[in-house]
Amino acid sequence: MLKSVIYFKTYSRLVLISQQNVQKGSKRLPGPNGVGLNKALHGYAKWFKDIYFPGYRSVDNAIDRQWQWFLCNEPLFYWQDAAPSSVSTLVSRTVNAEYWQRQCPLFFPEVNGHTFGSANGKTAGDVNSWTNGWDLTNTTRLIWANGYVSSDP
């Protein structure tokens, strides 16, 4: 049964989106069973069209498209996934590395034969080979915070 609340993950943050079609200041709220599938989907479509999509191509966009390009093109594979099966999670376990990799051609379709790095077979191993991964020691202008490189690129 589809609930009237949909959890939608946007990369570095989890956004709770209520698809109950409730106007601000409304005195009447849906009951515990929500508003039903049709109203919930209509609300989600309205949110997507009016809030999410208008800024999709701007620098200040909801999905951080520039960062997604970096992840798809360079492929760091630094995606925010669901917790391991042994740990409780708010995010669906279908949100994994394969899920995010499938998003890359949706965000960045091939244009005139040009595409992103991971579509051309570039891997995290290639990136590690180029950057020396965790073994990057012969460098200048690099700050090691707390004795190691943060897990956030």
Walkthrough of the structure:
- The chain contains 4 helices and 2 strands.
- The longest helix is centred in the first third of the chain and has 16 residues.
- It folds into 2 domains: 63 residues, no CATH class; 90 residues, no CATH class.
- It has a two-stranded antiparallel sheet with strand order 1-2.
- 29% of the residues lie in helices and 8% in strands.
- The two termini are 39 Å apart.
- With 153 residues, the protein is of the alpha+beta class.
- It comes from Penicillium cosmopolitanum.
- This is Peptidase S28.
Overall pLDDT level:
75
Helix-strand category:
alpha+beta
Give the tally of β-strands: 2
Helical fraction: 25-40%
Low-confidence stretches: 1-19
**What is the general shape?**
elongated
Could you describe the largest sheet, including whether it forms a barrel?
Answer: 2 strands, antiparallel
Tally of structural domains: 2
Strand order, largest beta sheet? 1-2
Which sequence of SSEs, written as H and E, runs from N to C? Answer: EEHHHH
Rg of Cα set: 20 Å
If helices are DSSP runs of H or I spanning 4 or more residues, what is the number of helices?
Answer: 4
Beta fraction of the residues?
Answer: 5-15%
Question: How widely separated are the two ends?
Answer: 39 Å
